Amino acid sequence: MRYRDALIVGVLYLFFLFIQFHRIFPSPLFSSSTIMTDLAMTAGTAGLLFSIYFLSYAFIQPVSGIMADRFGGRFVLLLSGGFFVGGSFLFAFSENLGFALFARILIGLGAGAMFISVVQTISSIFSTRGFPYAFGFLEVVGRVGFFTAVFFIPMFLETLKWQTITLYVSILILVLIIAYMVLIKVDGNKDKKKEDVVKNSDSTDKEKIKILDAFRIKGYLPLFFAFFFNYAVAIGIVSWLPKMSLDIFSVEASDVGIFTSFYPIGGMVGFALMGFFADRVFSKRKPILILSYLATSLAVMALVLSITMGKFYPPIFASAIFSIGLFSALSAIAIVMGKELVSPKVVGTIIGTLNIAPILGGSIIPW
Length: 367
Description:
- By secondary structure, the protein is mostly helical.
- Helix content is 82%, strand content 0%.
- Helix 2 (26-32) packs parallel to helix 7 and helix 4 (43-71) runs antiparallel to helix 5 (73-92).
- The N and C termini lie far apart (43 Å).
C-alpha cells in the first residue's frame, strides 16, 4: 500500500468513527443532559429523534450504492460529507424538535452514503483475503466512536452543554472533510486511474444491477435476515437500556454509561477477530452467522429475564451487553460475504442493499 493510500484509508476510518458516534449520540443525551426539556420532547418523540437517523440512513443505502458504482466513491463521499457535517452543525444550533429532526435526517442521509463510499474505496485498495481484516478494523474504529458517545459524553455533559459538544464534533468532521479533499486532489490522476480499472474490469456479472435484483442472488437473503436480527437486537437494547435502567432499577446515570460501554467494547473485540474467525477458525463464513445468531439470542434472554424479575445483576448485565456487542460484530461478516457474491463493478449496490437490514432493525426496535 502506498503512503498516500494509507493516509486516505486513515481519514476514511475516522469518517466512520464519527458516523458511529452520531448514530448513538442522542442516547446519552436523553439521560444526562437537558435535551428533553430544551426540545420539549416526550419518550415517543425522543424515540423518533433517535430512529429518524436510521430510517434516513436505510433509505439512502441502495441509492448511494448505485451512485458510488456509477460516479465513483469520491464524488459520493464529498457530497454526502456535506450533508453529514451540515446536519451536525444544524443539530448543534437546534432550538426546537423540528430543527433537530431535520438535522438528524441530514446526518443519517450523509452517514449512509459515506459508509458505502468508505467500504467501496477500502475494498478497491485491499485484496480479497485482506478485506475482512480491513473491514473488521474499520468497524473497530467505528466502535471507538460508539464508545466515546456512551462513555465519555455523560462525563463531558457535567461541564458542557450538549449543543457545545455537538458544535465541537461538527468542527472536527469539517476538518476531516477538508483533509480528504486535499489528499485526493494531490493524489489526483493515480487514484482516478485505479477507479477506472475497477469500473472497467472484465466480469461475467451484469454491468449494472437493480436494487431488487440483489434479493434474487443466491445466498443473499440469509445474509440480509441474519444482519437484520443481530443489529435490531443490539441497537434496540443499547438505545433504550440507559433509560430503562434509570426507570426500573434506579441506577446512577454514570453507572449506566459504564454498563452500556460494554457493547462497543464487545464490538471492538468481535470486529478485531472477524477476519481471524473467517479464515483461521472456520475457514468458511456461514458458521459465523449461525454462531452470532444463537449467542445473541441467549444474551437477550438473560437481559429479559433480569428485567422481568426486576433484579439488577451487574455481572449478568455486563456479560450480556458485551456478548451482544461481540456477536453482532461477528454478524457483519455478511458484508464481506455480500461483496464476494458479485463483481467489483457492483460492490456499492450490493453493500447498499444489504446494509438496509441492520439499519432497519436499528430504527424499528427503538421507535
